[in-house]
Design goal:
Strand content: 5-15%
Largest sheet: 2 strands, parallel
Distance between the termini: 32 Å
Mean pLDDT: 86
Low-confidence stretches: none
Order of helices and strands: EHHHEHHHHHHEEH
Strand order of the largest sheet: 1-2
Helix content: 40-55%
Radius of gyration: 18 Å
Length: about 180
């Protein structure tokens, strides 16, 4: 990966919101038995998810971004939501295409943010009505790739005990890495 000549942009999300979004994701195979939130929490806490152990995945890219910052840009969804202007400018610089003063003055950055916003993308015809065909048997409505795009929505689904446990696991898994998520 590092020797490929490609650059990678990795966007991670706070653990509790990842669990809830994964649990509510409508892309789960209809052939599988539905999961309760409690069961999804137990599996996720054990590192069992459709993409493998979440913390290992995030830490791999985090460490990669520290070792090869010119190849891997590590971003947090929460930072993107809170200050999209800073993150989009950082992304442009990482890609070797920084915005000129003229572009910034003319509002190009703000227009890119507007065009790439959750509201804009989720309302595009292609994302409301089209599908992705991953294989003969796996066809997913594009609308299922969009949920709420909210920070901290997990508090509306998880119990206080679940939140506390995930915070403990996250602190333990990320200990010493320098990577921190808000709680």
């Amino acid at each position: 990966m590092i020797t490929s000549g490609c650059k990678f942009v990795y966007i991670c999300r706070e653990t509790k919101d990842v669990l809830v979004s994964s649990f509510l994701n409508k892309m789960r195979s209809k052939e599988l038995e539905p999961l309760s939130l409690q069961k999804a929490f137990e599996l996720f806490s054990q590192g069992i998810s459709q993409f493998g152990p979440y913390w290992d995945h995030v830490l791999g890219y985090w460490k990669g971004s520290l070792e090869n910052p010119e190849k891997i840009l590590f971003l947090k969804f929460e930072d993107l939501k809170k200050d999209p202007l800073v993150v989009v400018k950082r992304l442009a610089e990482f890609l070797g295409q920084p915005f000129s003063l003229e572009e910034e003055t003319k509002g190009v950055v703000q227009e890119i943010i507007r065009l790439c916003s959750f509201e804009s993308l989720s309302n595009l015809e292609v994302n409301r009505t089209s599908v992705q065909k991953f294989s003969r048997d796996i066809i997913v409505d594009n609308r299922h790739f969009f949920r709420k795009c909210k920070i901290g929505d997990s508090k509306n689904y998880l119990t206080a005990e679940m939140i506390e446990r995930l915070d403990e696991i996250t602190a333990e898994k990320l200990f010493g890495s320098g990577l921190i998520f808000g709680s």
